[in-house]
């Protein structure tokens, strides 16, 4: 019966609702994948998108909604790919944008990365996924664990087996999950090893001003879970300091009343990977900034050169190592080239886009990484008025920078003893240092 | 694209499908079918493989059957499995079967709506599976489109409200949209519903939040205080003032977000945060993006209406940068400011000298000249600055600047006659004797005549108040009542205008849909076929009816046309969807090809744009047509008058006309 929903694609007809087609476009403007849920819309519709892209100059500035004479294009930009959807009727724009992000998330989840190569390598699975996620232009199955029951993610072994036996990744059985009384959990789950893992992931968004003081800082946190527990477990998760959390949004499985009265997360979990909560920490609680940046960037008046000297150091990181540090800087247009020396890691400067990237790696407090040298400016051009902003990325393992700590996890309803684990990680979100 | 092999790939795959060895090997057979489907998905025309694919459908392999069904139409075989699918035990099957009903209905075209099926779908709204419920709504909406979509009565509304918690985010936001159709019977019911939905305003999914907000705004249309509670930023911006830092722009954000954030920041300013907000905005004023920098300057300008002194200080400081776009935006902000806050006039006037060397654009020059004219008595060198403008008036490209200069100089003449008299004379001479732009010349003559009637009279006419805080003339932010825009909330309408969207969607039924053929640009296709047929002596259009033959030559002068036009009544009026600008030449050519001749036509880009056409059929009946485009984005109004009342011929004519104009309307500008 699985095939029943497929023949809508064979129909000639006029779109009724929602998403009509999807084009995936890479940064050099190639349409490398297209999917039509109704009639085929010509690729030429993307010309309007390219026009808007040209006008916007930077990829981020492409308007999310673009009108064309017969369609509207709603697009997102993720991982160097534009997801451009074609719309023919009135829709809530955020609905479509959210769905496109979900598509990108699903690719990420299935292939480990959402890149052009990954999509091209797995083009069959991509089409199968898109077919399942949207039926007749309406979102159908978008939950990762339900999708994975229908379409198995690629593994090396499976692709070898498939190519020999000619079988596909489409499951032979129907997803069972929908038959249980709890919509997000399938019945009759069985594991030999019962495990429950929680990843507390926090991202710091911050703007640091010239003098090093914080203009704005906020922590966006999520708890992602991977639950492999047999039967119908009923979990409750408590925190040492639940009052830290502002603006919490919950997975539908969480009993909101319990949270309101006791600040405990009580839930029957979905099977597999899912996002338990997302939250914000800000305003009332001072946000600790884990790195500091010493910088000296100057352009001399009437001279064709300037100085560049940046040092990054750790701060308030509670004894944990700051790693995966990358600095990117959009240099002013007048910059022709940069001659720099890095005490650690490598740097690249793209003279076309004027983007300087310094891949620092791990910071050792004994020897702080430094990048220093000369900036060559176009001769005769006026001195740049504004110094560039430094965008910093970093990671700290085993630390939730807000100080959030899981107290305990209890399981009711089942007899076995599960293996439990909590991992903390802090990352830079939009972390920007003004110079 | 590696997958687009074109003709060759098709030949290959046909050979494979017909190869008995392939047919004997299920794996290879399926692989060949898979290739067809892949080609089809890439947009290739695989209709030629129909026969082979039907044969392939007879295989035992279920996966292959499924693949084949992607291609050939199979509706007559679908009905029965579909109906049993609706009653299947597995919810997954029911979900698909429900939407399948809508697809089959569309496939059958204009046939009667099957009442039994509709009842079945309505009863499936009670299904235990939440996605079946939502799919039922989607399917009913589509099947009952002609009757206005699915009906949400009280039991259905309450049922949906109770099921909300089980739905996924997509279902929630769609159900919230369907609930907009429901009108609660009593106040109690209304508030029960609102209480029930309160949680969805805090959903983690933005589309659910937006849909819930819209439902609140629409349901509470008679309770403005409830609407105000939902729209806190609008009703009580102060609530957010302590969160102002949230709206500071981050470097990597897109411009449209940054501009929106700046607008919000202006709303949140209070005594405590004004300093920080202004410091932040000041940083944006030197942004590389001109658009953003000017946006920040006008944001400071609007905060200046409350915190005048600080803002004028910052704006004056910005003038020191001597950047063209910055200076221009600052001077424009100053002009708006002195009108609303006269107390800052002295400070502004002190800052002005020097700006004239930097500003190059029309808007900036106009603002500067206006300031010098209106407040010239406070700027010591005002006459000399204006004199420079007068000297270079011959090379001035913007007529609006010349007009502003005339007004400013006459005004300044009233306060500082000795310094201005001579150059005013020269400017008037230039405007009256040498100026080519008629409006500037007329303005010059007007002031000349006014000055002749004596200085007292000029003063009476020109010396209106120089500022008026009560007149919010320069503020374009008119507060609209919530109910006026609630219906358009969470749609695309506010972005591009409702009227235009309605036109875009109205266009669809005529748009050709090619499910499998390679699509070419629809507009180009239209013109090409027209041109090729145009070479024939007499053009037969509408081969189906054959009722209309337009003759190639019509002898009618413009005067005769006008006379006939005025003497006749409009026999047919239509509005054609129209996007973008008009290309008169293209329209003229396209219509000429079908023997519709142009009498008169406005130039490109003029608004409103008008054109008149004439055509005559072989029986001598004249068709007089007027095209009218009021403004960009509105529809193209077509009015046709006929010399003899022939409804059939008129209908045929309209279809010819629509096709010809429609062909060029799709072209890109």
Automatic annotation (TrEMBL), chain A:
Q: State the family it belongs to.
A: Belongs to the adaptor complexes medium subunit family.
Where in this chain does the record put each MHD domain? 193-434
Q: Which organism is it from?
A: Callipepla squamata
Which PROSITE patterns does the annotation name?
Answer: CLAT_ADAPTOR_M_1, CLAT_ADAPTOR_M_2, MHD
Q: Which SUPFAM superfamilies match?
A: Second domain of Mu2 adaptin subunit (ap50) of ap2 adaptor, SNARE-like
Database matches in InterPro entries:
Adaptor_comp_med_subunit, AP2_Mu_C_sf, AP_mu_sigma_su, Clathrin_mu, Clathrin_mu_CS, Longin-like_dom_sf, MHD
The protein in question is named MHD domain-containing protein
A matching Pfam family: Adap_comp_sub
Q: How does it sit in the membrane?
A: Peripheral membrane protein
From TrEMBL, chain B:
The primary site where this protein sits is: membrane
Q: Which UniProt keywords apply?
A: Membrane, Protein transport, Transport
Could you tell me the Gene Ontology terms of the biological process aspect for this record? intracellular protein transport; vesicle-mediated transport
Pfam family, any one: Adaptin_N
Gene Ontology MF annotations: clathrin binding
Q: Mind telling me which GO cellular component terms the entry cites?
A: clathrin adaptor complex; endomembrane system
Q: Name all Beta-adaptin appendage C-terminal subdomain domain ranges.
A: 550-662
Q: Where in the cell is it found?
A: Endomembrane system
SUPFAM superfamilies attached to this UniProt entry: ARM repeat
According to Swiss-Prot or TrEMBL, what is its membrane topology? Peripheral membrane protein
Q: Which family does it belong to?
A: Belongs to the adaptor complexes large subunit family.
This protein is called what? AP complex subunit beta
Species = Callipepla squamata (Scaled quail)
The organism that produces this protein has a lineage beginning with:
Eukaryota, Metazoa, Chordata, Craniata, Vertebrata
């Amino acid at each position: 019966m699985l095939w029943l929903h497929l023949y809508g694609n064979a129909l000639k007809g006029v779109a009724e609702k929602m998403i009509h087609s999807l084009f995936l476009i890479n940064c050099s403007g190639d349409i490398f994948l297209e999917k039509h849920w109704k009639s085929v819309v010509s690729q030429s519709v993307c010309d309007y998108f390219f026009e808007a892209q040209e006008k916007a100059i930077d990829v981020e500035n492409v308007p999310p909604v673009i009108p064309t004479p017969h369609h509207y294009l709603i697009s997102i930009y993720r991982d160097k790919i534009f997801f451009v959807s074609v719309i023919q009727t009135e829709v809530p724009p955020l609905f479509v944008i959210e769905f496109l992000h979900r598509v990108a998330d699903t690719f990420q989840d299935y292939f480990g990365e959402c890149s052009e190569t990954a999509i091209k390598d797995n083009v069959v699975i991509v089409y199968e996924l898109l077919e399942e996620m949207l039926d007749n232009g309406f979102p159908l199955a978008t939950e990762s664990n339900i999708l994975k029951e229908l379409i198995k993610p690629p593994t090396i072994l499976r692709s070898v087996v498939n190519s020999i036996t000619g079988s596909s990744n489409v499951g032979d059985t129907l997803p069972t999950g929908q038959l249980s009384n709890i919509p997000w959990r399938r019945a009759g789950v069985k594991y030999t090893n019962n495990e429950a893992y929680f990843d507390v992931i926090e991202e710091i968004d911050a703007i640091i001003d010239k003098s090093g003081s914080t203009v704005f800082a906020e922590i966006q946190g999520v708890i992602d879970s991977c639950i492999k527990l047999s039967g119908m477990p009923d979990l409750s998760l408590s925190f040492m300091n639940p009052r830290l959390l502002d603006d919490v949004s919950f997975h539908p499985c969480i009993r909101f009343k319990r949270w309101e009265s006791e600040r405990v997360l009580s839930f029957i979990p979905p099977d597999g990977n899912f996002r338990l909560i997302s939250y914000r920490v800000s305003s009332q609680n001072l946000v600790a900034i884990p790195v500091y940046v010493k910088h000296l960037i100057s352009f001399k008046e009437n001279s064709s050169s300037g100085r560049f000297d940046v040092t990054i150091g750790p701060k308030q990181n509670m004894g944990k190592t700051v790693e995966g540090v990358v600095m990117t800087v959009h240099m002013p247009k007048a910059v022709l080239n940069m001659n720099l020396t890095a005490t650690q890691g490598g740097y690249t400067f793209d003279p076309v886009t004027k983007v300087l990237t310094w891949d620092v790696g791990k910071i050792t407090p004994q020897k702080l990484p430094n990048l220093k040298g000369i900036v060559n400016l176009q001769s005769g051009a006026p001195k740049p008025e504004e110094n560039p902003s430094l965008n910093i990325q970093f990671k700290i393992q085993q630390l939730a920078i807000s100080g959030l700590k899981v107290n305990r996890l209890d399981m009711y309803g089942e007899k076995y003893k599960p293996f439990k684990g909590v991992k903390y990680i802090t990352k830079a979100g939009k972390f920007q240092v003004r110079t | 694209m590696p997958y687009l092999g074109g003709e060759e790939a098709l030949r290959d795959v046909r050979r494979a499908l017909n190869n008995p060895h392939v047919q004997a090997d299920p794996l290879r057979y399926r692989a060949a079918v898979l290739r067809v489907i892949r080609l089809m998905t890439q947009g290739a025309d695989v209709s030629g493989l129909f026969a082979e694919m039907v044969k392939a459908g007879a295989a035992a392999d279920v996966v292959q059957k499924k693949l084949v069904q992607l291609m050939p139409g199979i509706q007559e075989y679908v009905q029965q499995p579909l109906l049993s699918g609706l009653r299947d035990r597995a919810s997954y099957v029911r979900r698909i079967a429900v939407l399948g009903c809508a697809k089959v209905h569309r496939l059958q075209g204009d046939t009667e709506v099957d009442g039994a099926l509709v009842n079945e779908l309505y009863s499936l709204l009670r299904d235990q599976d939440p996605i079946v419920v939502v799919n039922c709504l989607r399917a009913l909406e589509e099947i009952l489109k002609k009757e206005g979509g699915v009906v949400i009565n009280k039991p259905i509304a309450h049922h949906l409200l109770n099921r909300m918690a089980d739905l996924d985010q997509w279902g929630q936001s769609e159900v919230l949209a369907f609930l907009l159709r429901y009108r609660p019977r009593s106040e109690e019911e209304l508030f029960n519903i609102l209480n029930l939905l309160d949680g969805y305003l805090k959903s983690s999914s933005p589309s659910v939040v937006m849909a819930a907000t819209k439902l609140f705004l629409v349901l509470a249309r008679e309770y403005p205080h409830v609407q105000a509670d939902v729209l806190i930023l609008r009703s009580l911006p102060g609530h957010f003032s302590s969160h102002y830092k949230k709206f500071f722009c981050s470097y990597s954000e897109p411009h449209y977000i940054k501009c929106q954030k700046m607008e919000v920041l202006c709303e949140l300013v209070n005594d405590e945060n004004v300093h920080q907000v202004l410091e932040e905005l000041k940083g944006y004023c030197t942004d590389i993006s001109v658009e953003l920098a000017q946006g920040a300057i006008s944001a400071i300008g609007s905060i200046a209406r409350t915190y005048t002194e600080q803002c004028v200080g910052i704006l004056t400081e910005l003038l020191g940068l001597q950047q063209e776009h910055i200076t221009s935006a600052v001077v424009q902000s100053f002009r708006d400011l002195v009108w609303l806050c006269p107390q800052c006039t002295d400070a502004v006037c002190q800052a002005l000298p020097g700006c004239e060397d930097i500003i190059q654009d029309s808007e900036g020059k106009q603002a500067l000249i206006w300031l010098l004219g209106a407040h010239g008595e406070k700027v010591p060198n005002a006459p000399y600055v204006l004199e420079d403008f007068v000297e270079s008036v011959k090379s001035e490209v913007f007529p609006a600047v010349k007009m502003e200069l005339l007004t400013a100089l006459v005004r300044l003449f009233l306060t500082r006659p000795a310094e201005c008299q001579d150059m005013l004379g020269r400017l008037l001479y230039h405007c009256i004797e040498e100026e080519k732009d008629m409006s500037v010349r007329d303005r010059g003559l007007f002031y000349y005549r006014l000055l002749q009637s004596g200085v007292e009279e000029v003063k009476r006419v020109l010396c209106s108040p120089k500022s008026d805080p009560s007149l919010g003339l320069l503020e374009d932010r008119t507060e609209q009542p919530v109910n006026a825009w609630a219906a358009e909330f969470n749609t695309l309408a506010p972005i591009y205008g409702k009227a235009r969207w309605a036109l875009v969607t109205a266009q669809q039924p005529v748009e050709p849909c090619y499910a499998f053929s390679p699509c070419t640009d629809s507009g180009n296709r239209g013109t090409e076929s027209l041109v090729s047929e145009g070479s024939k002596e007499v053009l037969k259009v509408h081969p189906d009816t054959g009722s209309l033959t337009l003759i190639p030559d019509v002898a009618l002068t413009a005067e005769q046309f006008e006379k006939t036009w005025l003497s006749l009544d409009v026999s047919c009026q239509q509005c054609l969807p129209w996007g973008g600008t008009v290309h008169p030449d293209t329209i003229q050519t396209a219509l000429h090809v079908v023997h519709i001749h142009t009498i008169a036509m406005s130039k490109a880009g003029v608004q409103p744009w008008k054109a008149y056409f004439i055509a005559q059929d072989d029986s001598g009946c004249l068709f007089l047509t007027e095209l009218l485009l009021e403004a960009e984005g509105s529809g193209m109004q077509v009015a046709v008058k006929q010399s003899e009342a022939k409804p059939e011929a008129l209908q045929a004519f309209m279809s010819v006309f629509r096709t010809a104009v429609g062909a060029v309307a799709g072209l890109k500008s």
